[in-house]
Amino acid sequence: MLCGKNVVLGVCGGIAAYKSVEIVSRLKKLDAQVSVIMTQSAQKFVTPLTFRSISHSPVVTDMFDEPVNYDIKHVSLAKKADIIVIAPATANIIGKLANGIADDMLTTTVMATQAKVLIAPAMNVNMYENHIFKENVEKLKKHGFLFMEPDTGMLACGDNAKGRLPEPEMIVNQIVDILTTKADFKSLNVLITAGPTKEAIDPVRYISNHSSGKMGYAIAKAAERRGGSVNLITGPVNINKPENVNVFDVTTAEEMYQKVNELYEKADIIIMAAAVADYKCSSISDKKIKKAQEGLTLKLEKNPDIALSIGKKKGDRVLIGFSAETDNLIDNAKSKLEKKNMDLIIANDVTIDGAGFNSDTNIVTIIEKSGNMINLPIMAKDRVADEILNMALKVIERK
Ligand code: C5P
């Protein structure tokens, strides 16, 4: 699968360094050529011999080693790399890279490369939450460095918290994704709405719905992986933010509406996967509403219909919406597509197991403007995301 691909793996000094051995082993099984660079501290955790034996290649440990073949090692590896992966990446290496410090083989190689760099940090949770560290990560992201979110679990220090290196399988999957996906969204700006909105009733209560945000987030991830420049406007959800995507947090439909209006003009494709609350309270009580014997009547008013308003002024942009239904799936979806001037609508029956709100899978029908319909079988939301993006590209081709 990775035949002909050169992966340079930078290993830093953290207890998770032992897991990098499995990363190399898995990459070799996929036929990648792997060159390992170890920092000085990494060598205290695992020996270069381990990596040499598993990668079948010399391991680079020192800038000033006598070379095996005469070449300027940091430049040759930097040029040869299809991707540089740093796993585990310490706060130290991230700090150095963010500040242009190149004082060892790994930092000089990264600085000299034009390849993609994927960083998988692993550290104590307080270090991970440290503000200076976070600023460094943000700076690197702005410069196009790719990051993997650490896992939560038992850390070496005994804390049960965020900071674990993701499992080698996940890191290798990410590498495969990066190296094998075609960049067919490269010049495209994609705007996505996701998650529910929350409309306050009083300071402690709100109106909302069961949307988990998973479908919209999966689309954002897929568009980013395929090279798109992605803006994701999200209501409150409990899932990790996708890496390398511009995320804008909003709470209410009104806020989502404002943000969409700010960003839609530069978008080529707009995908509205948010479950926007149709109504909000006409007035929000500033005190907690007390229980009354005779029940409670709330006066609601309509929220703006974001998709409808964008549909009216979308110009050449591709507009894609969702239609989550409990009955009359296709008819309801078709009439929304028409009313909101969408190019595609994704219909799903939220009453079926394996489809809809909290599930990791979905069962959808994609309906085109022409009335043409594609029924997809049950599949992971990640794969549904790719199918939707494939269809979006077809709409662009036809325009
Ligand atoms: O709520 P409804 O079923 O009409 O939603 C269909 C589509 O319209 C979805 O794509 C949803 O994101 C969008 N929508 C919106 N603003 C609303 C209601 C729905 O953008 N107020």
Mind explaining what this structure looks like?
It contains 14 helices and 21 strands. The chain has 399 residues and is α/β, with parallel strands linked by helices. The chain folds into two domains: 6-180, 3-Layer(aba) Sandwich (Rossmann fold); 189-278 and 298-398, CoaB-like (Rossmann fold). The protein has an eight-stranded mixed β-sheet with strand order 12-11-8-13-16-17-19-20, with helices on both faces. A five-stranded parallel β-sheet has the order 2-1-3-4-5, sandwiched between helices. It starts with 5 loop residues before the first strand and ends with a helix. Bound molecules: cytidine-5'-monophosphate (C5P). Cytidine-5'-monophosphate binds at residues 193, 253, 272, 274, 276, 278, 303, 305-307, 321-323, 336.
Total of domains: 2
The gross shape turns out to be globular
List cofactors, ions and other ligands: cytidine-5'-monophosphate
Write out the strand line-up for the largest beta sheet, numbering strands in chain order: 12-11-8-13-16-17-19-20
Number of strands: 21
Strand content: 15-25%
CATH top level label of the largest domain: Alpha Beta
Low-confidence stretches: none
- CATH third-level topology of the largest domain: Rossmann fold
Mean pLDDT: 93
What is the terminal separation in angstroms?
35 Å
